[in-house]
Amino acid sequence: MTANPAPSVLPLSVWPVAQRTARGQRAGRYLDISGNHPAKMLPAIAQRAITTYTQPGDITLDPMCGIGTTLVEAIHLGRDAVGVEYEQPWADLSRANVELARSKGATGHAEVFTGDARYLETTVDPALQGLVALVVTSPPYGASLHGQVRARPGQGVAKSHERYSRDPENLAHQSFDNLLGGFTTILRGCKIMLRPGGFVVVTARPWRRAGELVDLPAAVLACAEDAGLIPYERNVALLTGLRGDSLVPRVSFFQLEHVRKARAAGTPHLAIAHEDILVLRNPI
Questions:
Q1: 213 φ, ψ to 5°?
Q2: Residue 247 contacts by C-beta under 8 Å, 6 or more apart in sequence?
Q3: pLDDT tens over the chain, length 284 residues
Q4: Whether 127 contacts 192, CB under 8 Å
Q5: Which CATH superfamily, name and number, covers 14-281?
Q6: Which one of 8, 32, 43, 152 has the fewest CB atoms closer than 10 angstroms to its CB?
């Protein structure tokens, strides 16, 4: 069989995934402590990806599953799911969120492995190789986009939960080049797990480093092609609510703070109100 040729212009659509706040989407569906994770995928993004690219009974994989968003949404939709999480506390929380979903009627089955996704073939049950219909994941960002804040009257704000851990082996703490190299390795492992024609959905957004815009989505596409995956679609996850013809901002404190500082320095920036949804396909 020959590989499907990549289209010259990738199809594009807008996913309105922020009609409810992130907290509202997780309320009662995830344990409250899940809010402490520094980088959580919106449940609505996982839901849209799973319903679009899989059928009931299919297997979904998240090689960096965090609190288990992909797994929880998959089993609520009647799919099975597999997750890998590098850090034990988050792996335990992912399992707990899966158990909560099952207690609320989710019909799918999910399993979480604790390990390094760069060694996916030896971390996940090898019997799953060639069976996964969909991979949903996101590379880690820097601490400037993560965390929670608490106002302290007269003392500014206190930031917390902005780090995954202090383990230097975690990709979140490595250089940008090492992050991309590690993510390429992860995607190669995902390709082995995918069935022919299976999909990979990666959420990514640009961010600013020392004032310069880092085009992470373009870098992720390069990683995917190096891993042997075919670009299929490039969608937009709109991170603002829609109310008729108006947008309801849902910009984080950190983005607003960066915008304020940039304007004060005479180099105005705009807040980022979307994530790229990069859809890739395993050759048939």
A1: -80, 125
A2: 240, 241, 273
A3: 445 555 556 667 989 888 888 899 999 999 999 988 878 899 999 999 999 999 999 999 999 999 999 999 999 999 999 999 999 999 999 999 999 999 999 999 999 999 999 999 999 999 999 999 999 999 886 544 444 544 445 655 444 444 556 777 787 778 889 999 999 999 999 999 999 999 999 999 877 666 677 789 999 999 999 999 999 999 998 887 777 777 777 666 666 666 677 667 776 666 677 889 999 999 99
A4: no
A5: Vaccinia Virus protein VP39 (3.40.50.150)
A6: 8
